[in-house]
From TrEMBL:
Listed Gene3D superfamilies: Glutaredoxin (3.40.30.10)
Record-linked PANTHER family: ALKYL HYDROPEROXIDE REDUCTASE C, THIOREDOXIN PEROXIDASE
Reactions performed catalytically: a hydroperoxide + NADH + H(+) = an alcohol + NAD(+) + H2O
Protein name (database record): Alkyl hydroperoxide reductase C
The Thioredoxin domain, residue ranges: 17-176
InterPro entries membership: AhpC/TSA (IPR000866), Peroxiredoxin (IPR050217), Peroxiredoxin_AhpC-typ (IPR024706), Peroxiredoxin_C (IPR019479), Thioredoxin-like_sf (IPR036249), Thioredoxin_domain (IPR013766)
Domain of life (superkingdom): Bacteria
Subunit annotation: Homodimer; disulfide-linked, upon oxidation. 5 homodimers assemble to form a ring-like decamer.
Species name: Desulfonatronum thiosulfatophilum
Active-site positions on this chain: C66
GO terms under biological process: cell redox homeostasis; cellular response to stress; hydrogen peroxide catabolic process; response to oxidative stress
Length: 212
């Protein structure tokens, strides 16, 4: 599935990405700190490489909660890469602002993942994080599997930062379930813990199943 993610006229409704469905292909301009250069990232190419995509929307460069979030994500970046993820931070800033912020803000010195620019807000609108009153993005995290299906979404308001430990946990759960589609992961599941296998025998007996 591929479609253009264009900003519609204000009175036209826009289709949003939905959990459980394939998402539209997109291409964004980027600043890549690891290489110190500008480039582009394309969802279809990430999928062809067999990778998961993590989109990490944040309000703006040169703000206050944002660098703490990006620094926290940087601490988990290597672990997420090892799971087969392409991590892409996205805001409505330009790639030039990304470069300037990454260079000047000491909290970002360990950021190696892609920093993508969505200055028109087109992709941000598609994922439902664009705030038209401010022109900024809410704090949204989206996990897209290698088939292009959106499997997880989290959106916070401006004033609440996210936790990359939980993102890593959700990634491990989604990878496990992709490999074991007959199973389900209970609350707080971590790698190696017991899963559930839904069936008529499990109805009303989840407690007993988890004790086995």
């Amino acid at each position: 599935m591929s479609c253009e993610v264009n900003v519609p006229h204000h009175h036209h409704p826009i289709e949003h990405a939905k959990v459980g469905r394939k998402v539209c292909d997109f291409t964004l301009e980027t600043y890549v700190p690891r290489e110190g250069s500008f480039g582009t990232v394309n969802l279809e190419e990430v999928q062809k490489a067999g990778k998961w995509t993590i989109l990490f929307f944040y309000p703006a460069d040169f703000t206050f909660v944002c660098p703490t979030e990006l620094a926290d994500l940087a601490e988990k970046h290597q672990a997420l890469e090892q799971l087969g993820c392409e991590v892409i931070a996205v805001s409505t800033d330009t790639k030039f602002a990304h470069l300037a912020w990454r260079t000047s803000e000491k909290l970002l010195e360990n950021v190696r993942y892609i920093m993508a620019a969505d200055p028109t807000g087109a992709l941000s609108r598609y994922f439902g994080v664009y705030d038209c009153q401010t022109g900024l993005d809410l704090r949204g995290t989206f996990i897209i599997n290698p088939d292009g299906v959106l499997v997880s979404t989290e959106i916070n308001f401006y004033n609440v930062g996210r936790n990359s430990d939980e993102l890593h946990r959700k990634m491990e759960a989604n990878i496990h379930l992709r490999e074991n589609p007959q199973e389900a992961c209970p609350a707080k599941w971590t790698k190696g813990a017991k899963t559930l296998t839904p069936s008529e025998k499990l109805v009303g007996k989840v407690y007993e199943s988890l004790q086995e």
